[in-house]
Amino acid sequence: MKKVLVTGGLGFIGSHTAVELLARGYRVVIADNLSNTRPEVLDGIERIAGQRPEWVNVDLADQSRCRTFLAAHDDLDGIIHFAASKAVGESVEKPIAYYANNLGSLCLLLDWLREHSECAFIFSSSCTVYGQAETLPIREDAPVKPAESPYGNTKQIGEEIIRDAVRAHGLRAIALRYFNPIGAHPSAAIGELPLGVPQNLVPFITQSAAGLRGPLKVFGNDYPTRDGTAIRDYIHVVDLAQAHIVAMERLLAGEATEPFEVFNLGTGKGSTVLEVIQAFDRAAGDATVEWQFAPRRAGDVIEAWADTSRAAEVLGWRAERSLDEAMADAWRWQVALGAAAPDDGTR
Ligand code: WQD
Fold first, then answer.
1. Which of 75, 84, 184, 332 sits CB 3.0–4.6 Å from 102 for a disulfide?
2. Cα 286 to the chain's mean position, in Å?
3. What CATH number has the domain spanning 3-183+236-265?
4. So what's the pLDDT on residue 317?
C-alpha cells in the first residue's frame, strides 16, 4: 500500500484529494497546522472514506519541526503539496509572511526530496501565473506575466524553484495550475470552509443565500465580455482532486516524459459572474442570492479559461462535472453547515 503525504490536507482541495486517495487504497498522512481550516474536516474525511487518515499538526515552514516530521515519514511514495497561504488581498498586506510560509515550506520539502528522489512530488499551482493572458483559452506555454500579488508570485517562484531542484537533483515533479476551484463533495461532509469573510465568489454566494452575509457585490459590470461581468473557468473540486491522483500516478509509473511537467486544470469553459449566479439560482431550489453591481475589484483579470488539451492528451484526464452540479454541491454543503454564524461575527 503506497503512502502519500497531503500537506494542507484539511484544506479545501487537500481534503477532497485525501478522500480520493483513500478511495484508491493509498495510505494517507495529512500535515496541516490549521492556519486556514478546522480540525472537524478530518471527521468529514472519515465519514466519506470510512477510515481516519493520520493527521499531524505541523508548521512545514518551521525548519526543525518540518525535518522532524519528515524523518518520521521516511517511507513516502508521494507528496501532494497544498499547504500555503492563498488569500490574494492578504498577501499584498503581508508579503514577507507569504514568501516565508509558501516558499519556506516548499524548500524544506524539496530538501527532503533530494534524499528521496523516487518520491513523486505534486505542486499546487494556479492560473494566477498567467495574469491577463493575451490568448484564450490559455495554454501552458502562455507567457507567465508579472504576478499581480505576492500570493501569485509565490506560485511563479515556486515553480521556478522546483524546476531548478529537479534539474540539480533528478527529482520527479508535476505542477498543476488550477483555474477556479468550486463546489463540495456530494456527500456534503466536506467542502469549502473560508474562515472570515469569503473573498471568493462561490462561498460568498452560498453564505449570502444562507442569510449569513449581505447581498453579493458583483465587482464590475463594464468588462468587455458578453454580459459585462468577468469570466473565469470554474472547476468542480472533486474533478480537481481526481486530477491530482492521475498526475501522481503518472510519476509513480515513470510515465513522465520530462522531469518537471506543468498542466492546466480547468473545464475549458468560461462563465461570467452573472452566469454563476444564474447557475446557483437553478441549482439551489428555492434559495436565491441577492446581488448588486459594485466597482471592479483591483487586480482582477477580465477573463481566463483553460486550454485543457494537454491534460486530456497527456494525462488522459478531463473535468466531468458541470457548473450547475458544482453550485448544487456547494449549496448542499452550505445547508449542511447550518446557520453556524460566520466566525468573524459579521453578517
Ligand atoms: C471570481 C470572479 C471576481 C467575489 C482567486 C485567486 C486564484 C485562486 C482562486 C487560489 C471575479 C468576482 C468575487 C465577490 C465578485 N485562488 N467576485 N464578488 O479572483 O478569479 O481567483 O481565487 O489559488 O489564485 O486569484 O476568484 O472567486 O475571488 O473571483 O464579483 O464577492 O468573481 O471579481 O471576477 P479569482 P474569485
1. 84
2. 29
3. 3.40.50.720
4. 98
Residue 308 to residue 266: CA distance in whole angstroms: 6
Does the Cβ of 177 fall within 6 Å of ligand 1? no
Q: What is the pLDDT of residues 102-152, one digit of tens each?
A: 999 999 999 999 999 999 999 999 999 999 999 999 999 999 999 989 999
Q: Whose CA is nearest to atom 8 of ligand 1?
A: 180
Ligand 1 pocket member 310 (CB < 6 A): no
| Nearest Cα residue to 153 out of 177, 128, 178 | 128
Q: What is the DSSP string of 266-283?
A: S-S--EEHHHHHHHHHHH
Is the preceding omega at residue 259 within 30 degrees of 0, hence cis? Answer: no
Which atom of ligand 1 is the closest one to the Cα of 128? 24
Please state the φ and ψ torsions of residue 177, each to the nearest 5 degrees: -95, 105
Of the candidates 154, 140, 319, the one whose C-alpha atom is nearest the C-alpha of residue 244 is: 319
Q: What is the pLDDT of residues 173-214, one digit of tens each?
A: 999 999 999 999 999 999 998 788 999 999 999 999 999 999
Determine which residue's CA is closest to atom 18 belonging to ligand 1.
218
DSSP one-letter string for 211-223: TSS-PEEEE-S-S
Note the pTM of the prediction, 2 decimals.
Answer: 0.97
